[in-house]
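Technical note accompanying the year-one report. For the benefit of new consortium partners, we illustrate the data format agreed upon in the data management plan: each record pairs a sequence with a structure-token string. No post-processing was applied to the example shown here.
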Amino acid sequence: MKILNSQKIGNGNSNIIILHGFLGMGDNWRSFAKKLDGVKFKINLVDQRNHGKSFWHESMSYEEMAEDLFLFCNSQNIDKLILIGHSMGGKTAMKFSLLFPERVEKLIVVDIAPKVYLPDFDHIMEGYNHLNLDSFKNRSEIDNLYKTFVKENFLRSFLMKNIYRDKDRKFRLRINLKVLEKKILEIGSFDHKGLIFDKPTFFIKGSKSEYILNSDQYLMKKIFPKYTLHEIHNAGHWVQYDCPEIFEKIIKSII
């Protein structure tokens, strides 16, 4: 039985679990988690399978990722939790809430809807595949090559966090690139299988993002009848980075 890797922040009695998005890791949420009440909450920043320091596996279904989280909760004696998920992590969070509703007190889904998306990560994956990591002396050399594929500085910096030095000081990828490429359509999918999560659910969307559309609200209400939608102006898909203070304020008001 393999247990997901996580970082813990705070020593409170109430549990929060935060799930990162595609090509991310729990550590992406560290600075945000430190802004929450560490006396009241224990915040777990979890690496999902094939990401961060968690185990690699040949499959990437949301049902399996929800079961990964269930095993993690059991290993940490977490019986009740507030669950926050961004993008791919939001889909895992929704699936977990549908399968194990007794565990979740509140569900917070950041800029993703319970529907199928056609992923558009070709340039990102192509960039990773062009990196012969053994040939680089330093990170700036890697960055110079990768910027020909990903020009946006913020996104490239985010993606470069998946590159680390191993014990022999050689550059390596934290993500299981081959599996993530192979399962990209599955990661874009979502099937609620007629299940309903009838507890407080909060969707947070960026006004500049097209991940949650007005037309998605019918489906959101059908699956999550007690949902509320918060829209943050001037924010894109990475709401938590684009407007951190407003995002923090909303999360604190919810929890």
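Partners are asked to follow this layout when depositing records. The longest helix spans residues 62-75.
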